[in-house]
Amino acid sequence: MQTPATSIQQKPAWRRTLDTNGVFLLWTAFLLIFPFLVGAISGTSPTGRRGESVFQQGVMIEYLTYAMLAMSYNLIFGFTGVISFGHALFFGAGGYILGGAARALGGETGVIVGVVLAIVASTGLGLLIGIVSLRLKGVYYAMFTLAVAEMFYIFFRRNPETGSEDGFGLGSSLPELLGQRIVLFYLTVILFILMFLFIRRLMFSPTGAVLLGIRENENRAKTVGYNTLRYKLFAITLAGVLATITGMLYALLNRKVGPEMFFVNFTVNPLLHTIVGGIGTFIGPILGAVGLSWLERTIRSTVLTVGESQINIGQWWAIILGVIFVAVVLIFPYGVVGTWNRAAPHIRKWISRFLPGRNAESG
Amino acid sequence: MTPLLEGRQLRKVFGGLIAVSDVSIAVQPGTIHSIIGPNGAGKTTLMNLISGIYKPTGGSVWYKGQEITHMPLYRRAHIGIGRSFQITNIFPNLTVIENVRLAAQALSSIPWQFWRRADSHKDFINQALSHIALVGLSDSILKPASMLPHGGKRKLELAILLAASPELLLLDEPTAGVASEQVGEIIHTIDTIRAQGDKTVIIVEHNMSLVMGVSDRITVMHSGTVLAEGAPTEIAQNKEVQSAYLGELYSDVMQPKTGEGKHDH
Ligand SMILES: Nc1ncnc2c1ncn2[C@@H]1O[C@H](COP(=O)(O)OP(=O)(O)OP(=O)(O)O)[C@@H](O)[C@H]1O
Ligand SMILES: [Mg+2]
After folding, report:
1. What is the ipTM of this complex?
2. Model pTM?
3. How far apart are the CA of B37 and the centre of ligand 2, in A?
4. How many domains does chain A divide into?
5. A266, exposed or middle or buried, with CB in 10 Å at 0-12, 13-18, 19+?
């Protein structure tokens, strides 16, 4: 009657499917050789100042920052079940604090001070927002966070010291090293992989279990003895810090910061990316972010040639992307990865019926 | 002997409705104390006041001689009060083992170890497994809780409660809506708790044969007030109780025909 503990050493089924080490190693390898791969194909140098490889590295950095933003958003939205509309606040704070420090101090010192300051500040900001507002339920919390983020957006649009609507450039104040695209590329790849591994480890930890418990049934989590407010505070602060780190990378990539970093786009996009990829899955947000960003870029630059005339599809990119989004959500109600995880056991079982000699019971 | 738990003059008003009206209850350590009464009598509301789900409109709650009326819900688990619910209250998309393991680790020092794998703590897994075995769910440990049949969910509800090893167990209709052939396993679980002898139980039940069989004391509620309190034999013979409530239900004891969930759905 007693099942030995070893039998669940192989994780619970739904987690086992999320455990994607094979796939993970594959795309880690892909990212690591990416600059040289593109360089070899296009015959351009991966380490120069311009050229196809350098350009594509920039594109990939942008995709990865969107993926990191979605991963951090998924931590609260997908794993803890808290809906925030203020994620852009942390993204923007990262950019502006790093930018401000770089501009004020210059060189390596500026960047190091900026990074430390941004992380400290976003921790404080996360705790402050959480303590003030986490008692608010669902939509009210979301509205509160939206209002705070919008306040920052409006402030920085009007603040002449930070260049108002234009923001300000970082180019001259950044150290030489960060001016090299390939350095920034590998920095981004490393941070991206660390963030992925960190979130995965967290979600398999005792703390992650509590976060999932809060998402599933907060009142029951309280009844069994968890001070759920503290765990939610932990989750939103941590997600905020991760978004801040992402915001810093984004600023380094663009070599400028602007008020749009506080705009609601940087909340809504990770939200949509997470939904499309799969809420509460590990690779869903990444897939959603990279997939939709790639689609957007592709559609925007597509020009169809029909006979004599050229049709610029790009101008309708928002509509086309919207239609694709709706279609994906209809076909994959739990997001691409979430739906796949649910369907995979059934598909495997179905296939195994056609494979004589194989153990039809498994799967 | 000081009672383990005491409710003094507890009162709960919802708008104009007095759901619990100046109810006092004292539960001695090591006993099983049942609360019975017709639908809407205020039994669940009383349990909610004791466990901290609701703050009382009036009166106070005492545990081991200490007032806990305003103690937050989660802290009550830490002083030894556990609760199961009439309406199933589980973690639907977590597996059975995760549901119970989560409850088992709740009072330990590990929940903040975000750098460690949860399954490296084998003691909590084993603890969870033994409670799952006790309620008879060992076949389903890797199933998501939402996929269990109703009876399975009721058993899981009990296993979650037991996992944190509370001293005082508040059971709100553990057999609610459970098919009669499965009620036995739930009664078995309650008997096991009783046999261990170190637990105190407050149980709300409509299943009269269960109540008469396990209780040391019974409180009868009616329209938010206490109609009677006493040992099972006293309650069975109480004229007022018979006319107000037991008359119709007491026949169940003679011909045990266990609850069909007539009140839960
Ligand atoms: N949250 C609430 N808001 C308003 N009224 C409530 C609330 N909870 C309970 N009530 C009312 O209080 C009264 C007592 O309800 P309660 O659930 O405590 O009864 P009960 O004895 O547990 O009944 P049952 O046997 O049906 O479970 C009922 O009239 C009910 O409608
Ligand atoms: Mg009730």
Report:
1. 0.89
2. 0.90
3. 9
4. 1
5. buried
